[in-house]
Design brief:
The protein is mainly α. It is 78% helix and 0% strand. The chain is globular.
Length: 280
């Protein structure tokens, strides 16, 4: 045992565990823990009644509902269609496949302002898509639907890129064996493929949700930013900062941070439960 540990220490590429752990904690503290701690400390400028008044005002609560509701809904939609896109890219060969694969990463490459202006131009009442929706009474731009559309647009690549490698490594022999045993396509997908993909799918869902929750640049152009209707929480935080209400801005940010942490913790717990069921 001693010889194996010595051999491991000699042949390791990275520095020793103590040094690597120290650098990791230092980096995380500098980038993550200290800024988050500063956010919590800034709210101590408010008394508890003042804090409650700020974070429970009707305008703030309306922004919570829109931001979290649209983020979860967009992540669910991306989970379904992201899986479908990944499946098509992995399992089918067709003309222009590489172009489609590259287009998936377009929301990563586009500046958020450009994405917002583009979506607004498409879905406005006189836009290429909006002019067909307007006669049906569907208003996308400058409405809560526009918030959902922008969140869906920027979250799709997270699901596709987390599911795609797992699909590529998934042996087709498992599906053939399932079919040989008499299972139909739906049963094969439900009992053979989906359990393997579920951890990656939940990871993509969590990433898409977190990305949508913190999105600002692309949403403010298409949302209309009307208080109580289409105003997202990040915009409300920016508004309070512009009014030099730093304590109020950090109070809203703390509530958003805590709620995000709880939701992500629940997603990670579901992911761990899924892996445990698979015996991993």
């Amino acid at each position: 045992m001693i010889f194996s540990r010595t051999l491991l220490r000699r042949h390791t590429v990275l520095p020793g565990f103590d040094l690597a752990l120290g650098l990791t904690i230092f980096y995380l503290s500098l980038i993550v823990l200290i800024p988050l701690s500063a956010t919590f400390l800034r709210t101590t400028e408010l008394t508890w009644p003042q804090f409650i008044d700020v974070v429970t005002s009707p305008r703030v609560v309306a922004s919570y509902k829109l931001t979290f509701g649209s983020s979860i809904l967009a992540a669910i939609v991306n989970g379904v269609f992201g899986l479908l896109v990944a499946w098509v890219l992995v399992r089918y060969q067709f003309f222009g496949r590489r172009i489609v694969d590259a287009l998936v990463d377009l929301p990563f490459a586009l500046p958020t302002a450009v994405a917002g202006i583009t979506l607004t131009g498409l879905y406005a009442s006189n836009g290429w898509i909006g002019k067909f929706l307007a006669p049906l009474g569907i208003k996308v731009a400058y409405s809560p639907i526009g918030v959902f559309v922008a969140m869906t647009f920027i979250g799709l690549p997270f699901v596709v890129r987390t599911v795609q490698p797992i699909l590529e490594d998934l042996a087709k022999e498992l599906e053939e064996a399932s079919a040989t045993l008499g299972a139909n396509r739906l049963q094969t997908f439900r009992h053979v493929i989906l359990p393997v993909l579920m951890p990656a799918l939940l990871t993509g869902f969590a990433l898409a949700f977190a990305r949508a929750l913190g999105e600002y640049g692309s949403i403010i152009f298409i949302a209309g930013n009307m208080p109580m209707i289409s105003e997202i929480t990040p915009l409300l935080i920016i508004t309070k900062l512009e009014q030099y209400d730093y304590a109020g801005a950090t109070a809203i940010a703390v509530v958003m941070l805590v709620m995000s942490f709880i939701l992500l913790l629940a997603i990670n717990g579901l992911q761990a439960w899924t892996r445990k069921r698979q015996g991993k």
